[in-house]
Amino acid sequence: MVVLTYISYSYSTSEPAEHKFIRSIFESNKAVLALLIISPPVFSVLLDIWEWFGRYLQERERNYFPSIQQTTILAALNIIVGKKLDRFGLACKSLTSKSSTSSEAFHTITRPDEQINEITSQLWGAMVKLTEINDLEVVLVSVAKDYKLDYVNYHPISKKPDDQILSSGSFFNHVARCRKFCCIPDIAKHISEMKSKRRHERRAMVAYLTIDGDTPTGSIAGIPIIHNHLSRVVYVLTFKSSQPHALSQSLQKLYGEMWRTFIDRILLEHSLKEIKSHVHQN
Q: What is the sign of the dihedral through the CA atoms of 143, 265, 119 and 218?
């Protein structure tokens, strides 16, 4: 209390204004200051409570996000399965009403291209909902053994990608060859950093980053879809936004498991497509 007594000492009437202001603060908060000076344990307890509350909020946020992910995934998978269920139900009705070979039945019920399109569409919808990136674009291309690329589908369907993304120097080709997740958070910055490279190399790298328009902007991320039994990349899936840093390396950590759920179903349909093509040839 010695400190408080000293601070409360009456100054002369000629006391500077700033001194009066400081003294008024201390005098109006004597009770709080006394509590902090006389009772350090109380202050320590208050700090502990504040830290506990902070940890509680962080834990609540961590638990909340996976639950939203799970709900979103289940809703998307239900739609995907529902499409196939409808097709199988119609096939069951038509095939049982007449005599059909097993080959005819197989070709009737398996429509991998339609199913892959539905899977990609639902993945796009889930990512828009979870990331809240409203201008998110998803493009899926097939990768041949010689790394020749071809469109499979894209969403939203109103956003048709530029044909140059199928070139040998495209981002898709780059992802397919490196066989790992790739992300460029700021395309424009990345392009400017490549200006020191040789002209032909720079032109190829610009091409692989451009999806719409002549000026590459925003951010892009790509996932190679590898068929383990065929031992090669069969598709490349990309996410693109016009916003720089909307997509980053942290995407893989946040959504990697969710992507795996959809990618496994794409690979299943691709396997059916391969089998179907050989059955047709025989």
A: negative
194 vs 170, more confident: 170
CA distance 254 to 251: 5
Q: State the fold for domain 66-281.
A: Beta-Lactamase (3.30.450)
Cα separation, 55 vs 260, in Å, equals: 30
As a whole number of angstroms, the distance between CA 22 and CA 116 comes to 71
Assign 156 to helix, strand or coil. coil
User: What is the edge-to-edge ordering of all strands in the sheet holding 149-155?
Assistant: 149-155, 137-143, 232-241, 219-227, 182-184
Q: In sequence order, what are the beta bridge partners of 232?
A: 227
pTM: 0.69
Sorted by where each begins, the domain ranges of the chain are: 2-59, 66-281
Count CB neighbours of 17 within 10 A: 7
Question: Which pLDDT does position 234 carry in this prediction?
Answer: 97
Closest CA to 207 of 262, 164, 162: 164
Cα distance from N-terminal residue to C-terminal residue, the chain: 98
What secondary structure does DSSP assign to 183-239, as a single string? EES-HHHHHHHTTTS-HHHHHHHHHHH-SSSSS--SEEEEEEEEETTTTEEEEEEEE
Other Cβ atoms within 10 Å of 129 Cβ, number: 16
In this structure, of 53-57, 59-63, 145-149, 194-198, the range with the lowest mean pLDDT score is: 59-63
Helix (H, G, I), strand (E, B), or coil: what is residue 150?
strand
pLDDT of 5 over the 50 cut: no
Q: Which two tokens stand for residue 146?
A: 């010689």
Which of 163, 166, 164, 212 is CA-nearest to residue 187?
212
The pLDDT score that the predictor gives to residue 41 is: 64
Distance of CA 157 to the CA centre of its chain: 19
Q: What's the rounded Cα separation, in Å, for the pair 10 and 23?
A: 10
> Which two tokens mark 279?
């059955």
